[in-house]
Amino acid sequence: MYLKWKNLKPSVTTGANMVNKDLSFLAVSGDGDTASIGVGQFIHAIRRNLDMVYIVENNGVYGLTKGQYSATVERGSKKKKGATNLQAPIDLCAMAINLGCSFVARSFSGSKKQLTALIKAAMSHRGMAFIDVISPCVTFANNDESYKSYNYVKANDEVLHILDYIPHFSPLEEVDVPEGEFSEVSLFDGSTLRLETLASDHDYTSVVSALSAIHEAEQADRHVTGLLYYDPEVPTATDTLELCETPLVELSEEILRPSLESLDKVNSSFR
C-alpha cells in the first residue's frame, strides 16, 4: 500500500494496518507536512510503532507555496530570495529516535546506492522505519549558501557507512562486498544490511551514539547520512494489540459477530 496524501498517512495506515497486517505500507511525505501540520500524526505513528516505511523528502522549503522556510531548515540557511532563517530547526531523525522509532536513517537524493539500500532495508524491517532524505529544491533553495542545496549537501555529507542490501534469497557470493571492516545487520525477514564502517565509533544500536552523530554534524554545519539507529525488538502496534494471525479483513462474519449467548454473558458480568 503506497500513500502520498497530505498529513493523513499515519492515520490511514493505522486503519489499514489493523485490518490487513499482511500488506506492505510505504508513505512518502514532505518536511513541511511532517514537521508542521502533520507532526502530531508523525509522532503518534512512532509511538504506536506502526509497521510502515515513512520517507520524508526534506528540502527545507514549501515549494507549492513559493518557497518559504519549513520547520526543518537550519538556522543561518538562505534561499535564493528572502532573508536568512533565524529560527532553530526541527531535526526529524533526532525527534524519531527520542520517540523510540525502531529504524531511523538519513540519506541524500544524490546518493543512489546508499538510499536504495536503506529503502530496501526499511521495507524488510518489522515496525516503524523512518528515512529522512535530504532532497535539494532546485527552484527555491539551490544556491550554494543554502544548507540543503545540492552542492552544499554533496560537499558536506558525512557518510557513516557504505551500504549493501542482501536479500535473504540471494547467494552471498553474488553480492559486491565492500572492502574494509564491515558489520551485518540481520533484518526481520532474513535479509541483511551490510555496513562498511567509515565512522568506526558509531554504534547504530545506541540512542546516545545516534543522537551524538546528529548533533556533532549539526554543530559542524554538516549532514550525517547512513543508518543512525536500529532496534528490531520493539513491539509493533499489531503485537501490542495482540491481533490474530489471520488479517481481520479475512475473518468471516461468524467469527467477527459474537453470538447472542456470548453478549448476554458479557452484559451480565457488568451487572
Describe this structure in words.
This protein has helices at residues 9-19, 31-37, 39-48, 92-98, 112-124, 150-155, 207-219, 237-240, 253-256, 260-269; strands at 2-3, 26-30, 53-58, 61-62, 68-69, 103-108, 129-134, 157-159, 161-166, 182-186, 192-197, 223-230. The mean pLDDT is 84. Helix 1 (9-19) runs parallel beside helix 3 (39-48), helix 2 (31-37) packs across helix 3 (39-48) and helix 4 (92-98) runs antiparallel to helix 7 (207-219). By secondary structure, it is α/β, with parallel strands linked by helices. The protein has one domain (2-243): Rossmann fold. Helices cover 31% and strands 21% of the residues. The strands form 3 sheets. The protein has a 7-stranded mixed beta sheet with strand order 1-2-3-7-6-12-8, with helices on both faces. It has 10 helices and 12 strands. The chain is globular.
